Task: structure prediction
Amino acid sequence: MIIAFANQKGGVGKTTSAVNIAATLGVFGKKVLLCDLDPQSNATTGVGIDKRNVSVSIYDVIIGRCSVNEVKIKTEYENLWILPSNMNLAGAEIEFVEDSISERFFRFKNTVGAVEDEFDYIIIDCPPSLSILTINAFAASDYVVIPSLADVFSLQGMAQLNNTIQSVKKYCNPGLRIAGILLTRFNQRTKLSGHIQKMLENATQSMDTKLFETYIRNSIAVQESQYQRENLSVYDEKSNAMLDYMSFLNELEGVINGN
Result:
């Protein structure tokens, strides 16, 4: 099962969600490969790996220089491996330009996707843009989770993201589904958040998806765990955000299993 966490807007909790869901799946006994497809390498840092020490990365895999097994790193978290990122990934799209269209959007699928059977889950942290790397992730994925803030700018970008996903479904991956929109850093006490939540619920109808009932509450533990380079399940398993991610994972698995 391949799940991409994507939003072209930065700062929406995309990487935080991908890292915490990947680590939590590992705690539940699932074998997980976390793929850091963002040149900023925040998912790599988020599992305690210093990106400055990453000599070979996911970049080397998708250009065919190395295999997944040569690059993947076992993290300190149970059942969790990562394909780390570094700044070399920023130049990948320039190399993709020379590819034929039939090759350009399938590099990730043809390399990383080929090891799907070795893992229960492959979780992809996409870059915060609708780039060739993001399209590569969509072309390989079964589901897309869209983390989003309850603000106007996130709402405005949803249509563009949906258009890209629908294009990938049409031309590259007919089986791709939007699992749902996940509200992050949510403060239910503000009127604006509640208003945007209702508007997102309406938007999901045109996207043939749902707004997850679970939302991730704003929590200082998220920022503190990032500073300590620890997963929330280790840093503070009883924090509001961690409890919310556990609840979200149950809801996500229900979507995947058709419940």
